[in-house]
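Mods, move this if it's the wrong board.
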Amino acid sequence: MALSRSGVAAGLQLLPRRLAASGAAAAGAQPPGSVVRVPWALRLRLQRGVQRRRRGQGEEAAAAAAAARRGKLLLRSRRPELSQPRWQTVGRWERPQLVSAGWKHRKACGDYFQLEPSQEAAPALQEPPADEGQGPSFAEMGLQPALLAGLEGLSIGRPTGVQRLAIPALRRGRSALCAAETGSGKTLAYLLPLLDRLLSRPERPAAEAAAGPASPRGLVVLPSRELAAQVGAVAAALCRPAGLQVRGLTGGGAAGGLRRQLRAPEPGAAVVLGTPGALREALRRRFLALGRLRWMVLDEADALMDGSFTEPLEEILAHAPLAAGAPGPAGPGESRTQVVVVGATFPAGLSQTLGKFTDVGRFVTLTTQSLHCLPPHVQQKFLRLKGRDKLPELLQLLKECPMSGRAVLIFCNSARTVNWLGYILDDHKIKHLRLQGQMSADARAGIFASFQKGDVSILVCTDLASRGLDTSGVQLVVNYDFPDTLQDYLHRVGRVGRVGSKAPGAVVSFVTHRWDVDLVRKIETAARKRTGLPGMDSSINKPPSKGG
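Not the wrong board. Structure tokens:
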């Protein structure tokens, strides 16, 4: 094998100085036209060096070009080659390469990826399309002046997307399923039109004896005492200018306490809000009657369909005047109860439960475009950790998080973990509150209200705090235990970036178990494809799957 003079010159540039000098002398001593033979091993070594240098230059150029093309990221990975820029589109049937694909292997511990915010404001606050203008205001929707005065007292301006959708439909008296993403303003979306119906059709006070049962015209059923207190405060602020009385009904005390809640400071409440257990007890003791009921709301329906609430809820539905069928548009003589089911996610058995008492086929479905989608304005980070590393990681997060004005929610999957983690935080002198369903009524009273006021900035809790509660001051959610279902993940991530929040906030999730990885893969796939999370249904009329 022979090389030309030019090939030898190029090769000699890569040789050591002493070897190159001797080679040059030998080459100069040769007459014109002669060749210099280079050993085979030396030639291969020279070629490999050139190839490595060219390959390195090519990879640097490719990386620079990719970085220039990438721009802002949709998904940021610890491994840059798995990051996804915003401009990249993954087809519906395409199987993207996932960061979490190998997370079931123990060597994956320490890996992470992060979903970056793709917009600043929550979807609920986005303006309608340009061809629809700015959308109607509360006054343009025809709401009663007293309700508009109540909104001014709450410092609420223009309606959100779900409110623009639901208020006109519910004012017409339709029974409905109202499904919207967490933190979008669903409470006002159902309270405003239903209170407007009561004000537009006033009734004379019932001629009840002083000891007779309370007979409200509106009923709101909620899964927790904390949520009942929160919604009750909003309803009272709206009803105060109109002169309507609102009562909250929660259990955990003696029967006399139920009577006092319903009748103090004066009888004749127009609206009652309560938990299923307390409402059932009041109905059984005949402190409460639903014969005059004009409308009923089942708020946070997926939590109400939990096994512990099924029997009380069915008993409440049996007392309400629903047997005539689901109401259509309200007419002058309309006397049937309007039913509104509200939530961000819905269980499969909801239609079967309601179907025992009313015609669910006549319900209208009201859903927003962002339903069941990951919030695009909230940063979400997923950390693959060993179980023993979760506590040090949490303590580091709390040390890095400035405590002034920044509230933190730490979610656990059981009351036992909440208590254990609370003891650890006590040992580290970290001030916090705990909230879980096994606490007594007296212990739970005021805990969440104290957290909302900012007295303590850290709350360690179960999913009891993930449904419906106003957490607009929260800027960080930590899933110490990864949630059991995608529905639970959506509710937890919805604690930040809500309507009224000053900052979008962030969510950090610790992924430790193999079954956690299964859910993370679904979340990552939905994020890369920009689709809703799988396995969720927003239709009350569709029967559940046979496998469910």
